[in-house]
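Notes from hallway chat w/ T.B., transcribed later so I don't forget. T.B. wanted the structure written out for a chain they're using in a teaching module, and asked if we could keep both sequence and structure tokens in one place. Agreed to drop them here.
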Amino acid sequence: MPLPKGFVQVYTGDGKGKTTAVIGLAVRAIGAGLRVYLAQFLKQGDYSELKALSRFKDHITIVQFGSGLFVRGKPSDADRALAAQGLAAARQALTAGEYDVVILDEANVAASLGLISVDEILDLVTRKPETVELVISGRGAAPEIIAAADLVTEVKGVKHYYEKGVQARTGIEK
């Protein structure tokens, strides 16, 4: 059963928990019988949350559009090609009528790195069907994306054990 009205949500900020929030939203949507598409920009790998979500493969499609390497400085042509592929796939998922919730994880970061443009994300917002929820995550959301959203949550970093040298832990951060 589709949503009667879909909105645009943005999760941004410098704190930990943006992807965790959108994964929680995906789980809630699946629990309600909604169909979810999760596009992860800049990511490639076997993260713990993806292993858990794979148990719901009849209700969620997860696709990664990243090299798995941290993009530093100028992105490579391969990084740009993967992001363009992700954008095209997200556009298809958003408009094909197969999904109720479309999540673009780290799309804000992809835009801030110049892998995709803010205008391309705004085009997705414009194309969003009335009954589809569009969720965009990642630090550094552009003011135009924030203005176009119906809900914006800023995750603020206050204190993090990473600052004391603690690396990402399986099951907690990865």
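Follow-up for T.B.: The two ends are 32 Å apart (CA to CA). Might be a good example for the class.
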